[in-house]
Write a structure and sequence with these properties.
- The complex is a heterodimer of chains A (296) and B (154).
- By secondary structure, chain A is α+β, with helices and mostly antiparallel strands.
- Chain B has 154 residues and is an alpha+beta fold.
- Chain B contains five helices and five strands; from the N terminus they run ββαβββαααα.
- In chain B, β1 and β2 form a beta hairpin.
- In chain B, α2 packs across α5.
- The radius of gyration of chain B is 15 Å and the shape is globular.
- Classes of the chains: A alpha+beta (296), B alpha+beta (154).
């Protein structure tokens, strides 16, 4: 592992450097993926640009009535421990607290997790549930990309060679929303997900009436993805156990998992159904525990 | 080409000339000669290289040394104070929580970070804290026993 080290002191300097180096410079955030890839020679980089000196990329900010904004350098540990994230987006806190172990969570960043574009990235399904917007910045300007359009394939994203992920914006969801992320591995730490499923449910007044349902899955396709047809099964429906089972069946049909060292395709399909049902029931229970508007 | 880097380790400053791609683990062991942090897998799986960066456990094998110059680094060599072993170290000795010893310094660093935040962690919190530290000798039982003894005597 050999490279030139770039250490910009602020973000605009980083963008200028990225413009100059393009593909030749790899961005180093937490390093928990990048350094492993470089050491294993799965990736070559002439230069590595550390963002560590850029202090204003590490924040979790509530924007009243609009949502929550995260700097790209927020670590998994920061997000998992954040009362703002725990309260509003528990599925993201759950996903972050299941990444690797403490050491990984202290170094690895949510931004890095996304930019690495592993099909198994734990932060991706929760952010897909939330319709998060990613701010991609370059020396010539910024663009906001919905997370569902960000991933192109394993380790491939829409990031251009001169761009750096700057922020992640999570829009506020009104009403009684409950959500969870479940990760299946052979053990509870130091695991890459065999399957990861997140479900978010929003209730419409009554405890039994689902206004909106979202399902997102990881490790089941070349990119993390939403199960749009599965969601449709539950949206605007009165809750019934058979509907949850049907939604899980349909979600599994939308997946295209492979067989690899961690699990077979068939096992993954089975586990999508299981996790989907469990996550939907938990998301529903969480939404039901939230008080109705006006009855506080 | 080597670059000048100043690292703060266990309260001391070290002015070094190092290659920009060297890891913190290699620099600690080979330049500063603090060999208590071990190199096991060198890819962040085993936790034998765990050190504290500003009080938080990280895998030193996945830190580019030159980027750690803004942080306070604590290694196993910084755990004893004034010649007295840290209570966790004393408990490990007393309870026989060390066998081959290769994982021990990493586990102690993870546990120190836990105890700095929480002086009476639950059994689950202890397990989570060292989930990233592999021990292939002890089966962890004596490690947990040592940690329990520290909680009880505090």
């Amino acid at each position: 592992m050999r490279f030139e080290l770039l250490q910009p002191g602020n973000f605009s300097e980083a963008l200028e450097m990225k413009k100059a180096y393009g593909e030749r410079a790899r961005i180093l955030a937490g390093g928990t993926d990048l350094l492993v890839l470089l050491k294993d020679r799965k990736l070559k980089a002439e230069a590595v640009m550390s963002l560590r000196r850029i202090r204003d990329l590490n924040f979790i900010r509530v924007e009243d009535g609009k949502g929550v904004r995260l700097g790209a350098l927020v670590t998994h540990g920061d997000a998992a421990a954040s009362p703002v994230i725990q309260e509003r987006f528990p599925e993201l806190a759950e996903a972050c607290s299941q990444v690797g172990a403490v050491q990984m969570q202290n170094m690895g960043t949510i931004g890095g997790n996304l930019c690495n574009a592993s099909p198994a990235a734990d932060a991706a399904p929760p952010l897909l549930l939330m319709d998060a917007l990613l701010t991609l910045a370059s020396a010539t300007g910024e663009r906001a990309v919905p997370i569902q359009d960000f991933f192109l394939g394993p380790r491939q994203t829409v990031l251009r060679a001169d761009e750096i992920l700057k922020e992640i914006f999570i829009p506020e969801v009104p009403g009684r929303r409950g959500a969870t992320y479940l990760k299946l591995g052979r053990r509870q730490a130091m695991e890459i997900a065999i399957v990861g499923v997140g479900v978010a449910i929003r209730l419409n007044g009554s405890d039994q009436q689902i206004a909106d349902c979202r399902i997102a899955m990881g490790s089941v396709a070349p990119i993390p993805l939403r199960a749009r047809r599965g969601e449709q099964v539950l949206r605007n429906q009165t809750i019934k156990d058979e509907l949850i089972e049907e939604a899980a069946e349909v979600a599994a049909e939308e997946a295209s998992p492979i067989s690899d060292v961690r699990a077979s395709r068939g096992y993954r399909l089975d586990m999508i159904r299981v996790l989907c049902r469990r996550a939907a029931r938990e998301a529903l229970a969480r939404a039901q525990r939230k008080k109705q508007e006006g009855s506080k | 080409m080597k670059i000048p880097v100043t690292l703060r380790v266990n309260g001391e400053s070290y002015d070094l000339m190092i290659a920009p791609y060297r890891t913190l683990l290699d620099v600690l062991r080979e330049e500063i000669h603090l060999t208590g942090s071990k190199k096991g897998c060198d890819v962040g799986d085993c936790g034998a290289c765990t050190v504290l960066l500003d009080g938080k456990p990280v895998n030193a094998c996945l830190v580019v040394a030159a980027t750690a110059d803004l942080s306070e680094i604590t290694t196993i060599e910084g755990l004893a104070q004034d010649g007295n072993l840290h209570p966790l170290q004393q408990a490990f000795v007393k309870e026989g929580a060390v066998q081959c010893g290769f994982c021990t310094s990493g586990i102690l660093m993870s546990l120190k970070a836990l105890f700095d935040r929480n002086s009476s962690p639950s059994a689950d919190e202890i397990k989570v804290a060292i989930a990233g530290n592999l021990c292939r000798c002890t089966g962890y039982a004596k490690i947990f026993k040592a940690v329990e003894s520290v909680i009880q005597s505090s």
